[in-house]
Amino acid sequence: MHTTTLHRPTHRETLWELEAAIERGDLITVFGRCTVDYDGRATSTLGPGNRLVILKPDGSTLVHTDEKRTPVNWQPPGCEHHASVRDGRLRVRGTRTTPDETLDIHFEQVHQFSALDVTGGRDLDLYGSEEDLREHILDDPSLVESGFTPLETERESTAGPMDIYGEDAEGVPMVVELKRRRVGPSAASQLQRYVEALHREFGDSVAVRGVLVAPSVTDRAADLLKENGLEFVALDPATGEPPEATEASEEVEPPEASEDADGDEPKEADSETDGSDG
Amino acid sequence: MHTTTLHRPTHRETLWELEAAIERGDLITVFGRCTVDYDGRATSTLGPGNRLVILKPDGSTLVHTDEKRTPVNWQPPGCEHHASVRDGRLRVRGTRTTPDETLDIHFEQVHQFSALDVTGGRDLDLYGSEEDLREHILDDPSLVESGFTPLETERESTAGPMDIYGEDAEGVPMVVELKRRRVGPSAASQLQRYVEALHREFGDSVAVRGVLVAPSVTDRAADLLKENGLEFVALDPATGEPPEATEASEEVEPPEASEDADGDEPKEADSETDGSDG
DNA sequence: GCTTGGATATCGAAC
DNA sequence: GTTCGATGTCCAAGC
């Protein structure tokens, strides 16, 4: 464990230590008054101010102000760091390819420089993701519906891979799309794409059900589901159970006859079970 | 401009300076060996290791390893920071509400503590966004198509606000969806939602055209557009012109003898003849 | 406060 | 390498 710290160093001192730290593979922080110019997928400039700059040994670059979780400027991993002193300023440049991008940081003054030996585990153990929700359902498919039988995960279609493909108690094909949090219109569209792909695959005469599984759904998404004859089941990704206070509110009276008189409608799409607690 | 730095401080020393720095509204960095526990929208644990922790005066919290642009753990702005010493460890806790979330960082040892007075501009001047693409088109609507007339931006519909609403030379309503980068299936679905909303609004007998404007499109998205009778125009958000080497590759104009014998001509705005069930 | 969609999104997995 | 969807996405604007 080593750390190197310079206080109000000259640019030459900073340059020297910077190059050594990059060589060592340290994580570097530079606090100072600087301007920032970015050119790549977009273009940006940032006027002078005191910021915290972080250079990681994997090439990541972060420029942080005193606000927000998101850096005001950055470079993802894979970029190359190079420092130089020009016109009385310290320039730190990060460049990468695919796409070609350049981030230039010009320091008027460096208040503090540190080189840190960052080691140790970086693998997070996380729980409550969409994958956890999927495992809950595969463990107990009746969470989706009594009689549901999962047949395949990541089943391919012309619209892309489906989260869970299976069939209901009657043998009707079902597409299940999982979301770990409250869903909006885009999730409803995504499910609709998969259902349409199966219709093209099987022919329109074959009934296909689409079920969205998530803790809750917005009103507009519920409308979209209903318009497309899709269904919704409320489940929490962490517990695999219906979210709190939903047990009594389920099966809110589905509307009587839908005007869609195809004859092959698989089941009532009671998508408005949620709609609550917006 | 002031900075406070401690090297290998005791937990008590760190605690003292930490509380003072939070009070002052400084940006704080703590480098040390720690574990991290998060509980909120999901749950996570991170085993011991040396990491760089950043506490911002707006409540943002970042835990960085030596890799990736994204922090391994974090808290967005608005959380409250509190530090304490327990069981020989320094605990830094960030809590927030809506949703309820807690981030706990337990330091076994602090290698370096810094409190920084981060000031100065934080407003980025950025160019090349979707908004810039929109301005290019509003300046010169023929970029989309000769005769195109924008009538409204952010026009509301039951499917949400459309980027640009207008009409073509024949007076046929057009929805234009803008993307600053290469688009995939979701953008095609989004455009389709808007077109469907206008069909419901105007009645299926009224033709409506949907046009996606982006630098390029993936194969699958192109298929989706075609299936739904939607169109694509290639434009670069920064220049407002067709992307490089696209001059010769005609966008809308298909090669003379297309094997597609559907009679599917986008210009005829044939969405209503298709009667898509979606 | 919730909803919606953009972002220099980043990231990872499948192809 | 590209494509695609998840993310504790974050974030701003609108309501």
Q: What string gives the helices and strands of chain A in order?
A: EHEEEEEEEEHEEEHEHE
Q: Tell me the structural class of chain A.
A: alpha+beta
CATH fold field value of the largest domain in chain A: Trna Endonuclease, Chain: A, domain 1
Largest interface in this structure: A-B, 76 and 75 residues
Low-pLDDT windows of residues of chain A: 246-278
Quaternary structure = homodimer
The CATH architecture category of the largest domain in chain A equals 3-Layer(aba) Sandwich
Model description:
Chains A, B: It holds the Pfam family NucS_N. Chains A, B: This is Endonuclease NucS. Chains A, B: Belongs to the NucS endonuclease family. 2 copies of one chain form a homodimer. With 278 residues, chain A is α+β, with helices and mostly antiparallel strands. The first copy, chain A, has 2 domains: 3-116, Protein Yojf, Chain: A, CATH 2.70.180; 130-273, Trna Endonuclease, Chain: A, domain 1. Helix content of chain A is 18%, strand content 36%. Chain A is built from 4 helices and 14 strands. In chain A, strands 1, 2, 3, 4, 5, 6, 7 and 8 form an 8-stranded antiparallel beta sheet that branches. A 5-stranded mixed beta sheet of chain A has the order 10-11-12-13-14, sandwiched between helices. In chain A, strand 12, helix 3 and strand 13 (209-214) form a beta-alpha-beta unit. In chain A, helix 3 (185-202) runs parallel beside helix 4. The longest helix of chain A is centred in the last third of the chain and has 18 residues, at 185-202. Chain A is elongated and about 75 Å long. The first copy, chain A, starts with a strand and ends in a 44-residue tail after the last strand. The model of chain A is unreliable at 246-278 (pLDDT under 50). At the A-B interface, strand 1, strand 2, strand 3, strand 5 and strand 8 of A face strand 1, strand 2, strand 3, strand 5 and strand 8 of B. Strand 3 (43-55) of chain A pairs antiparallel with strand 9 of chain B, so a sheet runs across the interface. Chain A binds a DNA duplex (15 and 15 nucleotides) through strand 5 and helix 3.
